Amino acid sequence: MDTLSSRIQNGDVPAVCRSCEARHGGVCSALTPAQLVELSKHSSRRTIDAGTEFIGQGESISSYSNILKGVVKLSKVMADGRQQIVGLQFAPDFMGRPFLGESRMAAEAAIDTEICVFPRRAIERLIAETPGLEHLLHSQALKELDEARDWMLTLGRKTAQEKVASFLALIASHSDPEAEEKSMFELPLSRADIADFLGLTIETVSRQMTKLRKEGIIQIENNRHVTVPDLGRLVAAAGND
Amino acid sequence: MDTLSSRIQNGDVPAVCRSCEARHGGVCSALTPAQLVELSKHSSRRTIDAGTEFIGQGESISSYSNILKGVVKLSKVMADGRQQIVGLQFAPDFMGRPFLGESRMAAEAAIDTEICVFPRRAIERLIAETPGLEHLLHSQALKELDEARDWMLTLGRKTAQEKVASFLALIASHSDPEAEEKSMFELPLSRADIADFLGLTIETVSRQMTKLRKEGIIQIENNRHVTVPDLGRLVAAAGND
DNA sequence: CGGGCCTTTGAACACCTTCAATCTTCGTGG
DNA sequence: CCACGAAGATTGAAGGTGTTCAAAGGCCCG
């Protein structure tokens, strides 16, 4: 629209940030061009292969990051190995636990993922001097809290079939943001991951997927590719009214 | 210590706030005396009897509040009546979901509770003009997110016995903040509430309590009064290493 | 002391898990 | 291009943990 001013504005923005999606929805959208320039000097892009854990549970944290592409799973492990995925993060989510020196969970790329890494000090300084940034992070924390509590209902009170349907509905909502009816997507998680997200076993997940398929609520190809002909039926199977 | 300046400072603080605990740990600690004066004009104390629901799921929100005394349970209900408690709040927690017009869950006093109620507009104006307040609320949101995710592990991966022990350990930690060994407290929840918090039935909760009692990990008198002779054993029974 | 509610206890059952075998998919190398 | 092997997914049968249904016991308050 206003090509002149946007050209000028872009002129101020670091080259690496110019094509970055996170600049619009992510934390960087709360920063001024000058702050972006400063931050970009200390930040770096990183590619993480599927299955790579890049933050360990209990590990001390020296950096934050932004997801540019991909899906990250956050998980907790008990001493005897039992595991629970406590959150999935998608682009352009911010990752890290502000104001806490160590991570209370592990972070692992569910599929091939790209992140932009910022030094911890730089972010904390920016938060202190940029109310808009703290507001944005506060909003994301509240959104994640809402999601965590929704999932507590799923974990505590839903049946295996409802749990699996809830998971599929969650992924569908992140794939086709505004699809009203049909939906198609690739599952970012293996059956084992889905089980750890739902508090079930691999076998139960598999059986419930088969059941949903036989009931015509979903179609599955090559294990990961899912088609949902009628989202309404899936949501109903998830127990969400 | 400096009695003069503290007298002057107290002189600026509204009478109703002077003896209020929340002024130290709660949201009000982030406000200046002048802001406190202004806010107190529009706020009011309220006593809520045990079992009274004072915010409904899906209800539109016109106020926030601070817990002065008591315990509040936050719960979600499914269409068919299945219920899950998704959080417990203690004094001096702030209650309400900033930046969202309606509540995604119900709030009910678990025991007799006192709260200080603020009009929504007043709080949102204060947040916008007081970075320290937003920081405090952000910190509380992150703390609640940590708690919610810890509980997801409990709901998804722990056995009934570990769940009940986890609940008792949680209550113990809120009763005797720094007790190293022994602990005594009154349970703020009925067996039915505990079941809804743990994703179990009343009967299973009862059976596991009996089991913990027979194993000597806890003592119970009059259903609600619990003594924990050795917190270490309870924590171990909760599966926390 | 009686009534109601909450809690405990018991027995049968169901759902999910466990253990085990088979099948599919996909990457690798011949 | 196909064959092979490993990893992941599905399916089956048996078993266990927690649920459901039912009854009895205990606590609180009139």
UniProtKB/TrEMBL annotation, chains A, B:
Single GO MF descriptor: DNA-binding transcription factor activity
Cyclic nucleotide-binding domain ranges (all copies): 27-144
Domain HTH crp-type: 158-232
Pfam families assigned to the protein according to its UniProt record, in alphabetical order: cNMP_binding, HTH_Crp_2
Keyword Transcription regulation appears in the UniProt entry: yes
Keywords: DNA-binding, Nitrogen fixation, Transcription, Transcription regulation
InterPro entries named among the record's database cross-references: cNMP-bd_dom, cNMP-bd_dom_sf, Env_Response_Regulators, HTH_CRP, RmlC-like_jellyroll, Tscrpt_reg_HTH_Crp-type_CS, WH-like_DNA-bd_sf, WH_DNA-bd_sf
Transmembrane region(s): none
CC annotations in GO: cytosol
Entry protein name: Transcriptional regulator
Organism in which the protein naturally occurs: Pseudorhizobium pelagicum
